[in-house]
Design goal:
This protein has about 375 residues and is of the alpha/beta class. It has 13 helices and ten strands. The longest helix is centred in the N-terminal third of the chain and has 22 residues.
Length: about 375
Amino acid sequence: MVKVTHVGSLPRSQQVVDFLFSRENQQSYDQAAFDQCMADAVDDVVAKQVAAGVNIVSDGEISKISYATYVKDRYTGFSGDSERNAPADLKMFPSFLERIAKSGGTPQYARPMCTGEVRSKGGNELELDIANLKAAMTKHGVSEGFISAASPGVISLFLQNQFYSTREAYLAALAEAMKQEYETIVNSGLMLQLDCPDLALSRHMLFADLSDQEFVKIAQANVDALNYALSNIPSDRVRVHICWGNYEGPHCCDIEMDQIFSTLMSVDADYLLFETSNPRHGHDWQTFAERRAEIPDNKILVPGVVDTTSNFIEHPKLVAERIERFANIVGKDRVVAGSDCGFGTFAGFGAIDPAIAYEKLSAIAKGAKIVNGR
């Protein structure tokens, strides 16, 4: 049976966004009201996922300002502001980049640098996230859920190092710091998802001046750090998501899947989530077909079968075609239907209308139903 999931983030209500930006901007707010708002919002998004036909649900990343920079709120060692690097493909088309900026299409949020030792602040934010999701799952009768966490590599991409002597030392410190977060999620009975756009997106952002071969070495170092942080966790409880950037744009500088395929397969996670629906990566299924012998037997493929940068609602028959491309490669029992990326990557920012986001999830479920009926 092909199950249904997605990458994790979902649209947040205006009340949630207002609370998150009050915290982001260090403005006063009522902590009890904040906590209740987050709990209610998680309950709401779980109910909507179940109604759409999602089998493996998330908390929508409701309590996080973004999937990567939330760590600054939970760990010490971050201050100031990191250099902003526009993706290389957008720099190639300055008029398009300017249009995005003028339209408000670029999210504004703090991206501090690492200026000190990274260690947990000892707060209870993660425990609240876990409790909120498990309570909603129980209420709405769903048995499988996951919580997303930032990988060491993606943290190093957005919160750049100004403290540790080398990039490798920074990665090692991040892996050590995040290890407990990863283990806490899995020990709660939920699945862990690691968001790893550093394995693809960072090629045309922070490392745009390198060759593909040089970048692959960096990506492998990121995976090595991540694997250390996962060393106490069974791989069948871990999902890893890679992407080339969840934005509408040329994407003509995206590194090819074929270049990072071996690196992806080396992650100590059974579930691999990746883009296959947008126009730049719709052909990537061919790499999986051509390199079938290199896919370990424990890997479960979670292709994105709907695009998350367009408000088109995919036809279920097209979704079924996309699912079957991978089912024909590894078998139906090793495919889970997912989305290209998240629907609410940054709080208050997203290309997809909230109601359309859930219709897209429903399209995934309808496509999976077609495949399961064959």
